[in-house]
Design brief:
With about 500 residues, the chain is mainly α. It is built from 22 helices and seven strands. The chain has two domains: about 350 residues, no CATH class; about 80 residues, no CATH class. Helix content is about 60%, strand content about 5%. Strands 5-4-6-7 form a four-stranded mixed β-sheet. Strands 1-3-2 form a three-stranded antiparallel β-sheet. Helix 5 packs across helix 17, helix 7 packs parallel to helix 9 and helix 8 runs antiparallel to helix 9. The longest helix is centred in the first third of the chain and has 34 residues.
Length: about 500
Amino acid sequence: MRELEAWVRRHGAALAALILSIAAVAGALWVSGHVYEGLPHLEDEIAYRWQAEVVSHGALTVPSPPGDPRSFLVPFVVDWRGRRFAKYPLGWPVVLGLAMRLGYPAWANALLAGLAVWLTFRLGARLWRPAVGLLAAALTLTSPFFWLNSGSLLSHPLSLALSAAFAWLWLQWATATKFPRGLPWLTGATLGALALARPWTAVGVALPFAVWGLWLLWKGGTARARGVLAAGATAAAIAALHFVWQWAVTGSPWLNPYVLWWSYDRLGFGPGHGLTGHTPQQAWVNTRFSLQVAAGDLFGWGRWSWLFLPAGAWALRRRYDAWPLLAVFPTLVVLYAFYWVGAWLFGPRYYYEGLYSLTLLTAVGIFWTAGWPLQPTTHPPAGGRRRLWRTAAVVGLLALAVGANIRWYLPARLQGMHGLYGISRQRLAPFLTPQAQALTPALVFVETSRWMPYGALLSLEDPWLTTPFIFAWDRGPQAEAQVCAAFPQRRAIRYDPQKPYVFRLIRGP
């Protein structure tokens, strides 16, 4: 019994963090199934899912559809020189494709969400004490921002896990008393993998640590200087595969597929960057709006989500080893000001990979405000009754804020994402009836002026257009004739999403 009690004292925080990580996995699966219904909603998600299916079959591209390729629109999937491929980097589609191959696509981001929670705990435990990391992990589980992305098919949960893993691995060798020789290579590999998923984000995550790396090259000694060089070289070698991928799909290592969809979809300012030319003023508007959204979605406390950040910053003003870790979020904010469009629907997701910066800084701020020690100690904190009142006030305020979020903000925020863009399982139901199945193989012309009712049906179609139903966006008689001629073996049907279960036959078998 004494041995069990001793084990619990030593590993209790880690066990609690493991439980929180498992809860993150379960919660992400619930959000995926009950809020998003296991379907892609955002254009990005549709493209990721399409690309992941192609990759899962060992390919990078597929032939462009015959007839009129524009009738077979898939958002953010481009046709270039007779080949079709998504514009997004390959890192996340490879991971999602593996999960799809196994038959469990929702598990990819769910497991990565659990890993991110665990790594948040480990970061806090490494820099301060296990209780700080545990609080940061618990705060992550209360974050609407976390749930909005963890249940999605977006790349951000993978990037958050890689970002946190990179930070944790860096700390393992950069601050260790005994230098672990192999870890710098693994650290660089993690950053390189992040670059294959979200290249600009990888730059933002790397920059604060690059400053630390320069200091280590100057003052860190031979072993750590070699570690910095090893990490940098490994990251650069793996990140270079991004240009190999661009060469494989476009024919040029320097041609970004983003500009094949929108020629103005590029970083920077001036003409050709954004719809009307990106400007510093527009960057400020986007950034300010994104941070306003972040204030609500971070913890669901409204403007009070930032409440404990100043206290945390003050408490860590001399903890230089923590600064790079906590600088990831603000660095991403600055770097994404160079991009012409903001993000708010899933929260300010361009900053998502710095989520642990905010949860850890908030946890430190709570500890400092409550008068709890940030480092392990055997002595009870001084202060007597005044400290108890201070602690009680902080705990009470925190409980009130978390309770209000869980009761009102979080449920409403998630419910608002259900059926996003009108995409839901209900849209697919007409095609699962015996009446519809009897018409297969069928070419379905979808009559709609907006992409959403058409995009809602693409989950029933594979990239090779070999499924029982394939869908074409109705673009007029000439395009219809070209598409029908390209698929002579299929029935041709018109379908109006406003009149479900009504299939109008254009051409029989």
